[in-house]
Amino acid sequence: MSWTDRRRAFRAILAGRECVHPGSVYDPVSARIAEDLGFEAGMFAGSIAALAVLGSPDLVVLTLTEFAEQIHRMSRATTRLPLLVDADHGYGNALSVMRTVAELEVAGVAALTIEDTALPCPYGDGRLQLLPREEGLGKVRAALAARTDPELVIVGRTSALQAGGLDEALARARAYAEAGADALFFTGVTALEPVRALHAATGKPILLGGAEGDFSREDLAGAGVRVALQGHQPFMAAVRAVQETLAALRGGTSPKALTNQPSAALMKQVTRAADYAAATRDFLGGT
After folding, report:
1. Cα separations (Å) of 34 from 24, 31, 167, 231, 287?
2. Structural domain boundaries, residue 200
3. What are the residues facing 114 on neighbouring strands?
4. Which residues, listed in sequence order, are joined to residue 24 by a DSSP beta bridge?
């Protein structure tokens, strides 16, 4: 599928009546695994990008170039997985947002979020500060103006439910929707009533991150939610697996005694070994 085809597939999710949970991915192999397992979309979060590329906490010290390069690797490694990415604050002001959209569109994303939380990120104490409403709106408008493929999905993201309350969230949601945002992304949701109000006020598909509640897919879909993140357990699980494996080897365990290794068949699958073998036969005269 072309980048545009993947964007259309993501738009079909937004236009549907169900809620999907995207697979959290962070590199070409994890993206391929999500695709092979049938996930409707992949999600590359800013926090996971910081961990995967820099090994840093989520302080938005990652550069746009580093972010876009990792996205391009994942997009190129897959054939049909639509990729939703967290473009954080657009890496600067509204002009930087335009550059961000241009780079990520070329990198192959299906959808990207632009948020209105002020820098520096509130690492540690968790307190959020919102950008002035007009500045947040300017970023959304800049993102929309910068895309060249009209199928690219631009999502306005706000932390207003956490930092400003429902009234402020409604005001920002209406402004971003009226500017032309294709969907709206909210964090810090603890109940579905505010989500229903936001959906009713804007008519836009809703994306949720960090929802703090035991909501079923049916409940979420009924509130207008079309994409709901579940967290980023795959990267965390990988960290633990690497630590435990290295610790075992350091402690004297024989490599042959390790029990957490993937099968040869799985490794061939995630590396697309059959495709490389076919290319070798076709173009290098191999067998």
Report:
1. 8, 5, 37, 14, 31
2. 3-237
3. 156
4. 43
Q: How far is CA 94 from CA 9, 101, 106, 176, in A?
A: 28, 11, 19, 14
Maximum distance among all alpha carbons in the chain? 67
Residue 266 maps to a domain? no
Specify the 3-state DSSP secondary structure of 110.
coil
Fill in the amino acid letter for 88: D
Q: What is the domain count for the chain?
A: 1
- Could you give the 3-state DSSP secondary structure of residue 189? coil
Read off the pLDDT of residues 125-142 as tens digits, 9 standing for 90 and up: 567 889 999 999 999 999
Give yes or no for a cis peptide into 120 (omega within 30° of 0): yes
| 168 is a domain residue | yes
Average pLDDT (45-62) is 94
C-alpha–C-alpha distance, residues 32 and 73, integer Å = 11
**Helical H runs in 180-223?**
192-202, 217-222
What is the rounded CA–CA span in Å between residue 137 and residue 274? 48
CA atoms within 13 A on the CB side of 137: 13
Q: Indicate whether 270 belongs to any domain.
A: no
pTM of the model: 0.94
Tens digits of residue pLDDT in 240-256: 999 999 999 999 999 99
- The number of angstroms, rounded, from the C-alpha of 258 to the middle of its chain's C-alpha atoms is 33
- Tell me how far CA of residue 83 lies from CA of 116, 225, 275, in angstroms: 21, 18, 22
Query: What CATH number did the domain enclosing 98 receive?
Result: 3.20.20.60
250 lies in some domain: no
CA 241 to CA 239: how far, in whole Å?
Answer: 5
Cβ(82)–Cβ(40) below 8 Å? yes
Bridge partner list, 83: 42
* CA–CA gap between residue 104 and residue 111 (Å, rounded): 9
